[in-house]
Amino acid sequence: MKRPIPLNLQALYADLAQQLPDDPPASISRRMKGGKLRLHAVHPGGHQEYIGTVGEAEAEAKAAAFRAAAGRTRARRKIITALKAAGVPTPDPIASRVLSAMARNGLFEKGAVVVGTIAYQLYPIIVGDRLTMSSMYSRDVDVAVARIAIPGMASLPPMDAILREVDASFAPKFHVEQKQPSTFRDASGYKVEVLTTPGRPVTLRGLDCGAEPLAFMDYLIEDAMPVVALIGSGVRVMVPQPIRFALHKLIIAQRRKSQEAKSQKDIAQACELLDVLRSNDPDAVADAIDEARERGPTWRKMLDRGLARCSSR
User: Which of 17, 35, 246, 305 would bridge with 273, disulfide CB 3.0–4.6 Å?
Assistant: First the structure.
């Protein structure tokens, strides 16, 4: 059953998305030193930046810019509070902190893409429908990196250090024969997994972790799109195109021979998302299905099976 998100809420989100990225917020402090009243910008985390003396035109302009950015940050928080109060879904608290830490450290700027159920949690406001909450439960965050983006990861901090900003208990978990971990868990069992496109397992320099290859991942994350997660004053992340997410779920659901619960969840997410996308633009959905089926007999077989499961629901 469709549950449309009102147009006024979609317009609020559009306003929010246009405001990001923005300068990081900072408060302005004044301190007397050497007989002069000096201005400092106090950034999140406590770092202070000296910007000049009170009365100096350049210093006052910088202070005004920081105050304006802080005002925009407060305005975005109000928009996000309103959207959440109206029932627009948002990631769970741990996932929210993980996404924030990844964004803060530049992962999405370098090509990382959020996949899996956390991506699905970010789609409702994008597609204009609340989607089914029961399909949104997750205890993990999956992030994928295309092999072409791997060189850009060299400048990033280690993944375990990023995750310890979220929770000090996050630690790597090695699989058999893995040289670098691709999975991290906290003390509660919450999992973060790093994935990549088909091929051999790879090491992400800088992040100092591995990335586990998965079939069809190249299709899923091609042409990934930016969205604003409703976290804090807004966090910009990258997610797959919704239609690619839905068709990818139809395919991998056929491959989960011994994981019926996961297969059912994949189908539930795919079918509901396809219904919403068809109601918005049926021709675009038909074109995407045709393009995917043209990739070969394996694609046609698995897509047709997945679509048949949608029809039988």
Answer: 246
